[in-house]
Amino acid sequence: MKGIAGESGETSNEATPVNSNINGVAILEFILRFLAAGGTLGSAMAMGTTEETVPLFPQSILLNAKYSDLPMFTFFVIANSVACAYLVFSLPLSFYHIIRRAAKHSRIVLVTFDTAMLGLVTAGASAATSIVYLAHKGNVNANWLSICQQLDSFCERTSGSLISSFASAFLLMLIIISSAIAISLS
Description:
The protein is mainly alpha-helical. It is built from four helices and four strands; from the N terminus they run E-E-H-E-E-H-H-H. A two-stranded antiparallel ribbon has the order 1-2. Strand 1 and strand 2 form a beta hairpin. It comes from Gossypium raimondii (Peruvian cotton).
């Protein structure tokens, strides 16, 4: 058994401070990745199941709103679903980084895909945000009326879904930063 020679000539099997730092960063990255996967899943599910029907006039006309009526919401659901699938499939590799601390090349691959997923989630959330803003405020210049007075449940669910998606984007930023730290330590 080969160890590190100490000052007195004895061998030691203690982890170096750099290795324990890498291990802590790898554990943090795994936890953040798990939380981001849950956030994107919850966001996609909340938006994908959003639908509300209300009578507009004394029960003669029904106003129906669902996420699939707007392409931006559909893109939002797809973007968050793709990001969630990627994050779930990257969990085993992230767990491998806890065990194998010096896996530098696979970390670089993950950082590349994490950055792409950050862009995808941010693009989907930004597109949906513009529609949610119009639903809440309307636009007098374009003659678009606010619909949230009539469809309050629809607006609450879409707004909550956006909050979850932006939180997941923030977690993805933290994942990228922690991966960069782990790469620099290895």
